[in-house]
Design brief:
single chain; 360 residues; three-stranded antiparallel beta sheet; 11 helices; 16% strand
C-alpha cells in the first residue's frame, strides 16, 4: 500500500475482519473501515462494528521487520500503558483498551475505543482558525496528572533500556540509539563518543531525579485530539472558536523518568524555557504538585532530552523510509538542532570546569 513505512503492514477489509473476529468473536462484523493516516510505525485503522461501536485497530509490525532497540514490543507496551493510566490516572483522556492479542498467524495487535476529535496537527492545517491554547493548557494539566504515577525502575519496561538510577537508564537509552545508528548506517553530525560521554559529564544534574515518574514522551500535535468547544448561540460567526483536549493517543513509547522529559515534545524544535507563558506550561504548572523551576540543573537536563529526541528522530529515518535524499530538509534540520544542543552543553560544561578550577 502506498505511503506505508517499512514497519507498517498492508491490510485490507477482509484482514481487518479477521482481527475483529479474533478480538470479539465470530459473530462481530465490520460495517465500515479505513486506514488512519499520520503515524509511521504501527498500522492503524478506524473500524465501525455492527454493534454500533467505533474502534481503532492497531497492528504491530510484522515479526521480521527490523526495529530500533527501544521499539521492540511496542504494541504490548501500549496495552500496559493503557492499563497504568486507567488504574492510576483515570482523569487522563487516553483511549479505553478493548482487546490486546498475539496470534501466530495474525501477529500482535490491540483494539481501543475511538476518541472524539481531530489532531491538533490536522486542526492547524485546516482552513478554520481556532484558538488551540485551551487544548494545550488541558494537555499540560493531563501530563501533570500522569507524572503523579511512579514506577519501580527508570527507563523502559519489557527488557529494554532501563536502570536503577535515572542517569543509568538515560545512558542506556542513548547507547541503544547509537547502536541503532550503526546498524542502520545512519550518519550522525558528531562522533558517538561525544554523545556517549554526556550522562557522566552531567551526572550531578541527572542524579537530581529521585523518582521514576510515568512519562508519555510523545506529545507532538499529531497525538493530541481536540474538538471545538460549544459556542454560545449569540456568538459572532466570524469569531474564532476554542479547541479543548479530547484525547491523548499513541502511548506506546511511555517510560519512567524525569518529568522534564515530557516538556520537550509539546514544543518540538523549540525550548519550553524560552516561552514561560506557553499554554502547555501554564496548564502543567496549575496541576503539578509542586513548583516547576528552570534552574541550571533543569536547563541542562532539558538540553539533554532535546538532544535525545533529535537523535531518535534522526536514527529512525531509514526504518520509516525517510532518507537524506528524499527528505534533505529534515536531516539537515535535525543535524543543526543536535549541534546546537551539543554546543550549548559544551559551553556550559566549559563554564563549570572553569568555575571549579578557579575555586581551587
Amino acid at each position: 500500500m502506498e505511503g506505508l513505512s517499512r514497519t507498517q503492514r498492508s491490510l485490507d477489509r477482509d484482514q481487518v475482519q479477521c482481527f475483529v473476529e479474533a478480538s470479539f468473536g465470530a459473530d462481530r462484523r465490520v460495517v465500515d473501515c479505513g486506514r488512519l493516516e499520520g503515524g509511521g510505525f504501527a498500522t492503524v485503522w478506524q473500524v465501525a462494528l455492527d454493534d454500533g461501536r467505533a474502534v481503532v485497530l492497531k497492528v504491530a509490525p510484522p515479526p521480521d521487520a527490523p526495529l530500533l532497540r527501544y521499539e521492540q514490543g511496542l504494541c504490548g507496551a501500549e496495552a500496559r500503558y493503557f492499563h497504568l493510566v486507567a488504574t492510576y490516572a483515570p482523569q487522563v483522556p487516553v483511549p479505553p483498551l478493548l482487546y490486546h492479542g498475539n496470534d501466530p498467524d495474525l501477529g500482535e495487535w490491540l483494539v481501543s475505543g475511538l476518541l472524539p476529535g481531530r489532531s491538533l496537527w490536522e486542526w492547524s492545517a485546516s482552513e478554520r482558525h481556532l484558538d488551540d491554547a485551551p487544548a494545550r493548557y488541558d494537555f499540560g494539566a493531563a501530563i501533570a496528572a500522569l507524572h503523579r504515577v511512579s514506577g519501580d525502575r527508570y527507563g523502559y519496561d519489557g527488557g529494554r533500556a532501563s536502570g536503577v538510577t535515572w542517569r543509568e537508564a538515560f545512558a542506556a537509552m542513548l547507547d541503544g540509539l547509537l547502536a541503532d545508528a550503526v546498524d542502520w548506517d545512519v550518519p550522525l553530525p558528531t562522533s558517538p563518543a561525544r554523545i556517549r560521554e554526556l550522562p557522566e559529564r552531567y551526572a550531578s544534574a541527572l542524579d537530581e531525579v529521585r523518582r521514576p515518574a510515568l512519562l508519555h514522551f510523545d506529545g507532538w500535535d499529531g497525538n493530541l485530539l481536540a474538538e471545538p468547544e460549544p459556542e454560545p448561540a449569540e456568538a459572532d460567526a466570524d469569531t474564532a472558536g476554542t479547541l479543548r483536549l479530547r484525547g491523548i493517543v499513541d502511548g506506546e513509547r511511555f517510560l519512567f523518568g524525569d518529568p522534564l522529559m515530557d516538556l520537550v515534545s509539546p514544543v518540538l524544535y523549540r525550548r519550553i524555557e524560552d516561552d514561560p507563558d506557553h499554554p502547555f506550561l501554564r496548564g502543567y504548572r496549575a496541576a503539578a504538585p509542586g513548583p516547576v523551576v528552570f534552574d541550571e540543573a533543569a536547563l541542562r537536563r532539558l538540553s539533554l532530552y532535546r538532544l535525545h529526541l533529535y537523535l531518535l528522530m534522526t536514527v529512525e529515518m531509514p526504518s520509516r523510509g525517510i532518507t537524506r535524499e528524499n527528505h534533505p530538509d529534515r536531516f539537515e534540520r535535525l543535524a543543526d538542532l543536535l549541534d546546537q544542543e551539543l554546543t550549548e552543553l559544551g559551553r556550559t560544561g566549559s563554564a563549570q570546569r572553569s568555575a571549579r578550577n578557579s575555586s581551587r
